[in-house]
Design brief:
Blueprint lengths: L1 E5 L2 E12 L2 E8 L4 E5 L2 E5 L2 E6 L4 E7 L5 E7 L2 E4 L22 E9 L4 E9 L6 E7 L16 H11 L3 E5 L16 H16 L4 E11 L2 H11 L5 E5 L6 H15 L4 H19 L5 H16 L5 H11 L2 H8 L2 H5 L6 E6 L7 H14 L5 E6 L26 H15 L1
Parallel strand pairs: 12-13, 12-14, 14-15, 15-16, 16-17
Antiparallel strand pairs: 1-2, 2-3, 3-4, 5-6, 6-7, 7-8, 8-9, 10-11, 11-13
Helix pairs in contact: 2-3, 4-5, 4-8, 6-7
C-alpha cells in the first residue's frame, strides 16, 4: 500500500499481488474513490522492478525494491507521474458498523442455480438460529457490479443491513451479482431482465430450505434493485413484501436527466449550462428508448446522431466515452425502464424509503411516483418515507455528494435500519 498527494489531500492506494504458477497478477483498491478489486491488465517483477498496468484508467505503477521489502517509485496517470512508495499493509478505514464475528446468529455460505442462464450464484444466508422456520429477505443490489456486501468506499451496507435484520429475527440472503466475487456469469452483458431472473432463482432456492418460511419471503431492492424488486413481485405473487431503498419511481430516462441536473447544481454549474447538457443527452436517451438492446446497432445510431448534430463540438474521445457509458447493457436497460409498469401490478405490502439528500434518485419526485403507481391498483398496505439528511447510501450526510461517501464513518443510518426492521417484523408476525 502507498499514498499520493493530491493538492494537499492524501489518497491511499493498495495493490494485492498474487503469484500463481510463476505468473504475477495484481488488483488495485482505492477505497476513498469506491474502487475495489480492479484487475491489472499486466504485472511484472523483473530485476527488482515492479510494474503494474491498468490501461483502462491510463494508469501505471513502477517501483524499485529497496530495503525492508519496500518499493520506491511513481504512479503515473495519463503520463503524469506522482511519487508513491509501497510498503506491506492494508488500508483500514474506520467503519464502526461493520459486523465482526462472533455474530450471534447462524451464517451459511450458499449457492443456487439460475437454470435459464446456466450460471451458479454464490452468497451468504443469515438466520436468527440454526433451527426453526424464519422469514427471509433477499437483498437486490444497486447499479454497477456489486458483491454480496454492497462493498464500496470501505463500507459494507448490505452486510450491515443483514446483520441488523438477522439479530431482530429476520433472515437475509445476500449474494454476489453475476460475474462478481464467486458468482458465475458475465455482468457486462446483463440487463434488468437478467438480474430479475437471478432474483427469481434466489427465491426458488429459499423455498427449498426447511429453515425458511416459504410464505414470508420478501425483497429489499436498493437503487436499481428498487426497479427489479417490484418487477419480480409483479410476476411472482408469492412474494410477501418488498422494501424499496432509493428505488426509482419515474421513467429511467427522466431519472437520469434529473440525476444529472441535481449533481451539476451541487457542483455549482449555472442553469444555462445545465439546460444545454440536458439537450445533449436527452435526444440520445430517446434513441435508446426507441431501440432494442442490440448494443452495436445502438452505438452506431448514437455516434451518427452526435457526429451529424454536434460535429467537432464534441471531440471523438468524449463522444466515444459518452456512447460507451450509456449503451452499457445495465445503463441502457435503466434508461428504457418504466418502473410504474411493475409498481402498478404489485399487490404485496411495500415500504419505500428515500434520503432527503439523495441526488442519484431524488426523493420527492420518485417517492411521489411510487405512491401514485401503487395506489392505482388499490394497494393500501404501503408506507412512503423521506428520511431527512440521508444520502443515496442511507448515511447521515451534510450535502449528499458522492465525495462524502468515503469520508462518513457511518455505513447505514440507525434510524433507517430500525424503520426497515420494524416494518418487516410487522408484515411477517
Amino acid at each position: 500500500m502507498g499514498e499520493i498527494d493530491l493538492n494537499g489531500n492524501q489518497l491511499e492506494i493498495a495493490f494485492t499481488l498474487t503469484y500463481q504458477q510463476d505468473v504475477l497478477s495484481a488488483t488495485m483498491d482505492i477505497p476513498k474513490q469506491g474502487l475495489n478489486n480492479a484487475k491489472a491488465e499486466s504485472a511484472s517483477y523483473v530485476d527488482s522492478i515492479l510494474t503494474i498496468s491498468f490501461p483502462e484508467f491510463q494508469l501505471e505503477y513502477k517501483g524499485h525494491l529497496k530495503a525492508k521489502n519496500e518499493f520506491e517509485g511513481n504512479i503515473s496517470q495519463g503520463g503524469k507521474p506522482l511519487a508513491m512508495n509501497l510498503k506491506k499493509g492494508v488500508i483500514e478505514l474506520n467503519r464502526p458498523q461493520t459486523p465482526k464475528e462472533p455474530f450471534g446468529y447462524y451464517s451459511e455460505e450458499v449457492s443456487f442455480n439460475n437454470s435459464k442462464d446456466k450460471i451458479k450464484l454464490f452468497g451468504t444466508l443469515t438466520l436468527p438460529k440454526k433451527d426453526g422456520k424464519f422469514p427471509v429477505a433477499v437483498i437486490i443490489s444497486g447499479s454497477g457490479p456489486q458483491n454480496r456486501d454492497g462493498e464500496m468506499f470501505g463500507h459494507k451496507p448490505y452486510q450491515v443491513l443483514a446483520d441488523h435484520l438477522t439479530k431482530n429475527g429476520i433472515g437475509v440472503l445476500r449474494y454476489d451479482e453475476r460475474g462478481v466475487g464467486q458468482s458465475e456469469g458475465d455482468f457486462d452483458t446483463a440487463s434488468i431482465e437478467e438480474f430479475s431472473i437471478d432474483v427469481q432463482s434466489a427465491v426458488a432456492f429459499l423455498k427449498t430450505r426447511k429453515d425458511v418460511d416459504p410464505s414470508k419471503i420478501g425483497l429489499i431492492g436498493h437503487s436499481l434493485g428498487g426497479i427489479i424488486a417490484p418487477k419480480v413481485a409483479s410476476e411472482n405473487k408469492e412474494i410477501d413484501f418488498i422494501v424499496l431503498l432509493a428505488g426509482p419511481g419515474i421513467d429511467g430516462d427522466k431519472l437520469m436527466l434529473l440525476q444529472k441536473a441535481a449533481f451539476e447544481r451541487l457542483m455549482g454549474v449555472n442553469e444555462m449550462q445545465i439546460a444545454a447538457g440536458q439537450g445533449i443527452v436527452k435526444e440520445a436517451y430517446d434513441i435508446i428508448r426507441n431501440s432494442d438492446l442490440d448494443n452495436a446497432t445502438v452505438k452506431d445510431s448514437l455516434n451518427s446522431f452526435y457526429i451529424n448534430k454536434y460535429g467537432a463540438m464534441i471531440p471523438e474521445n468524449q463522444r466515444n466515452a459518452l456512447v460507451g457509458q450509456i449503451t452499457n447493457y445495465e445503463v441502457a436497460s435503466l434508461i428504457k425502464s418504466t418502473p410504474s409498469e411493475y409498481l402498478e401490478k404489485v399487490k404485496c405490502p411495500v415500504l419505500a424509503l428515500n434520503g432527503g439528500k439523495d441526488f442519484q434518485v431524488p426523493a420527492k419526485e420518485n417517492l411521489a411516483a411510487i405512491k401514485t403507481s401503487l395506489e392505482k391498483n388499490g394497494n393500501k398496505n404501503i408506507e412512503i418515507v423521506e428520511l431527512e439528511n440521508l444520502n443515496h447510501l442511507f448515511q447521515e450526510s451534510k450535502t449528499g455528494s458522492i465525495s462524502e461517501y468515503s469520508e462518513i464513518e457511518q455505513t447505514f443510518s440507525p434510524v433507517a435500519l430500525d424503520l426497515i426492521t420494524g416494518w418487516i417484523k410487522e408484515q411477517t408476525k
